[in-house]
Amino acid sequence: MERNCRLGIRSSAFASVILIFEVLAVALFLRGFFPVPVKSSLSKIRQDLPIEPLSGGSPNSSHVPQPLFKRVVIMLVDALREDFVFGANGRTYMPYTRHLVERGSTLSYVSKARIPTVTMPRIKALTTGSIPGFIDMVMNLNSPALLEDNLIWQAKTAGKKMIFYGDETWVRLFPKHFIEYDGTISFVSDYTEVDNNVTRHLDSTLKRDDWDILILHYLGLDHIGHISGPHSSMIQPKLMEMDDILKKIHGALISKEAEGSLPYLLVLCADHGMSETGSHGGSSEPEVNTPLVLISPAFKRKVGMEKPDEIEQVDLTPTLALSLGLPISQNSVGHVIPSVFEESSLRDQLRFVHLNGHQLSCLLKDSISDYAKEAGFEQYRVAEKAHGSWMKRYLEGNASEVLTNMGKKVLKQYLEALSSMSSALSKQLGKYDLYSMIAGMVFVFQLLLVLLLAMPEALSSSAAVDLPVMSALLSLPFYLLCLLLASVHVLVCTSAESSCYFCSLSWGLVFAAIALTSAMSCLLLSLTTRRLPLGLKLPGKVSCISSSEWSLSELDVLLLAGTAGHTLSLAASSFVEEEHQTWYFLLSTLCLAVFQDVCRKYFREKGDAGGDEEEFVLPYKENAKEEIYSEKWLALATPPFVLLCCRLLRSLNQTGVQWAHLPDLGHWLNSSEHKVVLSLLSALCLVFIYFLIQRRCSLVSKVALALGLLGVYSYRAAVGNVLFPWQHSGRNMSKGTVEARFVYVFVLGILFTGTKDLLRSQIITADGKLKNRGLWEIYSGLVFLVSLLFRPHNLPVLCSCLLIQTLLAQFIWKKLHYDAAQTTIMHYWFGQAFFYFQGNSNSISTVDISVWFVGFDNYVEAPAIFLTALSTYAGPLLWACHLVCYLSSDINRSPVAMGHGCYCLALLRSVPAAAYIVLVTVLRYHLFIWSVFSPKLLYEAMHLLLTAGVCLVFNTVEQSRTSSAA
Amino acid sequence: MWDHEIRAMASTHAIIAASMLMATVVPAALVPGFSVYGTHLLWIYSVSGAVAAVSVAIFWLLGISPPTRKHTLGYKLSRLFRSCLYFFLSCMFFHIVVVLYGAPLIDSALETFSLAVLLSSLTTLRCLCVLGPNVQAWIRVFSRHGAMSVWDTCLQITVALTVLGAWMGAFPIPLDWNRPWQVWPISCSLGAVFGYLSGLVVAPTWIHYHRKQLTYKCK
Ligand SMILES: [Zn+2]
Ligand SMILES: [Zn+2]
């Protein structure tokens, strides 16, 4: 074997490189999976109205029905749930609205929002009538102007004068569309000012006559939901306020109404609902169901509460367009709400549904290649023909009962055609760029296979991987593969009719990718051939491997089976939704298995088995024996204690879907009556955190930590989450920017000292102690930052994280001689469980966006993304960082432990990520792909990225270790 | 001698399995409205009672239980008392473990405790029958190479499979199928019973096929 022509790479470097490439491959996959929707832009909009069907007559009678309404006021209350109006509490929450719903001339519906139930996609859906893709949610943060055909644009082109007050998103989406506007910036912790900013314009605007459409978007309710959930005491006053505003608008509209002119229309609607935890984004019933109340004298008066019908949210768009006499937006997939037009003449009604049908059939033609086979399209054709003959009789002056019945039949046909076309279109939305997806998948799997094949070497005592890179690059198959793949690429890209991201890449990048995958294939080939004859050449090594395989302990079996089982469980949507249950279950079992190991160690029968353990052989002094005695009981108590901790933590935040509505400690603590308890608890936790992390820090850092943790508490007090003991009455809520920045200074200080120690230990003195102190200081800084970002009720999570780490490190991992691989897997499991303990789930709605404003007055992109990622992944990240510190500080450990740990971490992350990518590809037409599997895919990708970062840290720390050892 | 023991074991297990079947079938005929899902707790009690009664009777008749050193009535009573105490403690232990695994603390405490009773009567009771109320012996049997007789190995296998069955029974609970057997604790108790039954089958078979390798230290 020629060693010099191979590349010997340390395990950690190898793992980091593989992970980085994996991140790139996953990014390619994601780009294919979430294609940016290409739609017709504003510039090329057809304006030709279809002529009214008339069989056998002159085709000149292009009768456009009169608009139904003169003025429209749209009152959009963000996150207004359906049951806030129609539910049992509706009478107390919104008495006036409820009265109108029950007795007024109104139409009420439960309008179903599509996922993602996030504000901007919903505004887009309401105005364009189309269903924006999943990627819209990811791009929710920086919304550029809406370039699609939409209702607002149509109204502006038709010369309607519009006024807008409310969420600034509208102003960004529709620049220069409104004659007057006031956009308020969404700021989560404020829920009075945002609404007052809207309401203060109301009186003057309602008196004026110079507008046609008034849009109001109230954000306060949504913010209250984010802060304290749908059952908080703040909800009712806010809803009463909304009710009063509606009453005021309604009164003003009634007083303005003139005899003879067209009536007004007042729309009360919501962009999305609010989940039981108070956030939104997912697909649970309370998030999806929103109320839609149309108030106008044009409707029939109600005589009592009826159960509101269910409609799609996008149905409002064509309805509004037609009733205002505007063309329906091209991409709209909704169909008109027939009851709105009930009072107009049959001819007009038919004309309205015909216009809608025409628009939908055009969209169907554009988006589906074999549109003629669609049932809805056929129905529409038939209805249009019937419409034509009806028109003929109608124009002949035939006004009998028969004609009315026939017209009603045509209307019914139309409506059926509309709803089936509408559903066909909704299904059509979301096409996949399969070529990019497959390319990404192939890359990921090649990398994973290389990682797996290198396992025996990466986990060997030298922790270095021999990669025959040079021989792979210089071999003939490599060049042949390159050529083959390049030709395949050209073939696919020239034949594909749809746009494909991988084809639109520049040639240099594509060629690099092709070269990489060919090299990987050759590498795989040579690695496989090296593995196969190994059994013949190195019998000693193989026997050692096989013996280690045979002597798997129960713990090893559990760790392997658990990892594999979790990966497999991701195929079921319920297991993805309830992934936290999997991890809690595995973690409990792990604790019991560890408990059994501890019992075995300390309770083995002295006579026969204890002899081979050095602890029992070595003679001890009296006090040492006593120490061992107490240590024994502490070690025995640790796993049950951890188990208990985990049980308490899991009742802190109910997450997932099925049991998310159950009461949990977090809600109890956050309710306003228990503010004192919350304050005491968070203060206690901060003190505990201080004592747990200060041990390994230098004196300066200790002082900085103490001051900083005080700052954390005063930040929470300033924001209004907790109470200061000396500040009972004067509650002046601020944004706490000063306090948060004060903490940031200390965090940066501690991180800086840690980094300095680390660098000094590497460059100037090869001092292991200094280096460890540096590492622990960086870890402390991280913990400290997380304590600032966590909500106060989550501080126990952080506290018990540190406690469990300390206990396990002290009594379990060291004492029971768990090797680096076992320790890594345990760290990973704990990290995953803590991800869910802190209240996360696999739905986007649990991402805590209030951290954007910790220390910032308004939204700044880079820190906002960083802080969100940090606070969301705090659990896994802290455990991974603890792993780095623990493996590096344990002096008794073999120097390759770091490499083994890094390799295991990379493998643990790659296996589920790769498996999940395949699963998502296979299940891409699954019913829950958007609501369940896609958010999880984003979580997996983000986690992979973070793990790559941690592996890089591993790599640097280990590098310094080897260099200082040399 | 070994063949004899294995045969005894197999017939014992057959009787126990039959008693469990009877405990399911007989009440269904006698009690109106009895079903495994509908009146689950009743089923649990019936099965636990049957297993307990039959195991105690058989092991006492076969004389596998360790011989009592003293034959005084007081000693026997104290043994009986300790056995009951251990049984109750094991119920508590299982209950606590199940709660730590995530079962609701207050809401369905009765269901959880019933599961604990079932698990105890499938595992602890057998230990009590075979080993007597002797913690040292229990620890010995459940440490790594602690089996000293065929019955010890059999005990290890059945206990492990019962616990494993109950453990695996928890898997389908999060699935959104809304089946009657997904209700807590039905899947777990079913899992435990199936695990126990498979243990009854596996233990004699395994011992039969491994009788050459099995070597026990003398007591
Ligand atoms: Zn919203
Ligand atoms: Zn919101």
UniProtKB/TrEMBL annotation, chain A:
It is found in: Endoplasmic reticulum membrane. It is a multi-pass membrane protein. Pfam families: Phosphodiest (PF01663), PIGO_PIGG (PF19316). It comes from the Eukaryota. Coiled coil: none annotated. Residues 548-942 form the GPI ethanolamine phosphate transferase 2 C-terminal domain. GO terms for cellular component: endoplasmic reticulum membrane. Its main location: endoplasmic reticulum. One of its GO terms (molecular function) is CP2 mannose-ethanolamine phosphotransferase activity. CDD domains: GPI_EPT_2 (cd16024). Keywords: Endoplasmic reticulum, Glycoprotein, GPI-anchor biosynthesis, Membrane, Transferase, Transmembrane, Transmembrane helix. Signal peptide: none annotated. InterPro entries: Alkaline_phosphatase_core_sf (IPR017850), Phosphodiest/P_Trfase (IPR002591), PIG-G_N (IPR037674), PIGG/GPI7 (IPR039527), PIGG/GPI7_C (IPR045687). GO terms for biological process: GPI anchor biosynthetic process. Pathway: Glycolipid biosynthesis; glycosylphosphatidylinositol-anchor biosynthesis. The chain crosses the membrane at residues 12-34, 434-455, 467-492, 504-527, 676-693, 705-726, 738-754, 795-813, 864-889, 901-925, 937-957. Gene3D superfamilies: Alkaline Phosphatase, subunit A (3.40.720.10). PANTHER family: GPI ETHANOLAMINE PHOSPHATE TRANSFERASE 2, PHOSPHATIDYLINOSITOL GLYCAN-RELATED. Belongs to the PIGG/PIGN/PIGO family. PIGG subfamily. This is Phosphatidylinositol glycan anchor biosynthesis class G (EMM blood group). It comes from Hippocampus comes (Tiger tail seahorse). The lineage of its organism: Eukaryota, Metazoa, Chordata, Craniata, Vertebrata.
Automatic annotation (TrEMBL), chain B:
It is a multi-pass membrane protein. The keyword Membrane applies. Pathway: Glycolipid biosynthesis; glycosylphosphatidylinositol-anchor biosynthesis. Keywords: Endoplasmic reticulum, GPI-anchor biosynthesis, Membrane, Transmembrane, Transmembrane helix. It is found in: Endoplasmic reticulum membrane. It comes from the Eukaryota. One of its GO terms (biological process) is GPI anchor biosynthetic process. Pfam families: PIG-F. Its main location: endoplasmic reticulum. The chain crosses the membrane at residues 12-30, 42-63, 84-106, 112-132, 153-171, 183-207. Signal peptide: none annotated. One of its GO terms (cellular component) is endoplasmic reticulum membrane. This is Phosphatidylinositol glycan anchor biosynthesis, class F. It comes from Hippocampus comes (Tiger tail seahorse). The lineage of its organism: Eukaryota, Metazoa, Chordata, Craniata, Vertebrata.
